[in-house]
Design goal:
Blueprint: H1 2-32, H2 36-77, H3 86-101, H4 113-128, H5 139-143, E1 150-154, H6 163-175, E2 184-190, E3 196-203, E4 206-213, H7 223-227, E5 237-242, E6 248-254, H8 256-266
Antiparallel strand pairs: 1-6, 2-3, 3-4, 5-6
Length: about 270
Amino acid sequence: MGAEIKRAVRVGLKSAVITLPLGALTALAIIFFPHAVQWVVWGIKWIAIVFGAFFVFMAVTIIVMSDIVPRVQRRKWRGRAEPASEDFRNWLMAQIRTLRSLDFFKADKELSDEALFEKLMARITDEYGDELTELRVRPCMVGALDEERVLIQDMEDDGCLNEDGWVEFIRNWARISRGAFRPENIEARLDADETRAEVRFDAGGRRHTLVFKVDGDWLDFTFADKLDPFVADAGFRYEVERSDHGQCSFLVVINDEEAKRLRTEAGWNV
């Protein structure tokens, strides 16, 4: 016990040796320099403000530049061959020729394959920057550059939760039908519990009703099957290629022969 007391006394004395002079200096500073404490507080405050502003500035700069730099680079690369390898350019040209033979890009029918290549290359570069590879740009993404033939359908869409959204779905699905599906007087009704959507429209001289299951803002995965009867007389069907990443799907209207060629010549999964 005596040893412990001695140790405690030694620690106390060491602490006193340090704290007493500091306390004395502080007391003298307050007596002879009454504003010293205020100056110290003022200095600490402004140091904090300056450093805070600096860190905010750096954070904003990083966020802004992370968006601006890629866009500036994309503008710089637009229409130029350098970002894409020769293999990718050959692959894209083959895609274009196959798709054009299947009635894609009819709005650009006056363009040569080479001119259409440059137009699509600019759009792809603007979207994907310098990461131009067949793994990055899938075949269906090239087809989706023709918005009259391919619809990029987000399977999680707020439109599922309102009647106007369902009307817009029908219009979009009709747009890519190659004229086979022409709905008019479209009306939609969503059940009070938002678990069922009923869509009515005129097509082929008749009034039709389609019922879709609603699961929050997720689109009913059977929607394409419900549309097939409206394009069947033209020999077409709706095909959905689901994305490997995210929740988007690619919707296209094709016949059996076109589906075969898209699979074998273009690498689609339809």
